[in-house]
């Protein structure tokens, strides 16, 4: 899934979440439209939060900053060699 900003005839921009599977694009959620840049950025952030919450694919965290993945569950090769 990804966020798409689509321009309308009126000049405003609509923010939608799109899923591409089986070679077809499917709009999953519409978050609204606006012509103000601040409002568009807010809608994009809201759409990204939606993707993180409802996407089947999990976000991999290699730095250890995500709340979803716990890096303490995984060990590196250096840690295995110490044992």
Write a short abstract of this structure.
The protein has 83 residues and is α+β, with helices and mostly antiparallel strands. It has helices at 37-54, 77-82; strands at residues 2-7, 13-21, 24-34.
Q: What is the H/E string?
A: EEEHH
- Mean pLDDT metric: 79
Biggest sheet strand order reads 1-2-3
Count of runs of 4 or more consecutive helical residues: 2
Number of strands: 3
Main sheet attributes: strand count, strand direction, barrel closure: 3 strands, antiparallel
User: Outline, from the CA principal axes?
Assistant: flat
End-to-end separation = 41 Å
Question: Segments where pLDDT lies below 50 for 5+ residues?
Answer: 69-78
Strand proportion, as a percent range, falls in: 25-35%
Oligomerization status of the protein chains: single chain
* Class computed from helices, strands and strand pairing: alpha+beta
Give Rg in angstroms.
18 Å
Secondary structure: helix percent = 25-40%
């Amino acid at each position: 899934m990804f966020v798409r900003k689509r321009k309308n005839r009126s000049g405003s921009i609509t923010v939608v979440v799109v899923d591409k599977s089986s070679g077809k694009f499917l709009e999953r959620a519409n978050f609204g439209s606006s012509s103000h840049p601040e409002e568009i950025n807010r809608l994009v952030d809201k759409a990204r939060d939606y993707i993180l919450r409802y996407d089947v694919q999990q976000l991999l965290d290699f730095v250890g900053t995500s709340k979803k993945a716990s890096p303490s569950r995984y060990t590196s090769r250096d840690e295995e060699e110490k044992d």
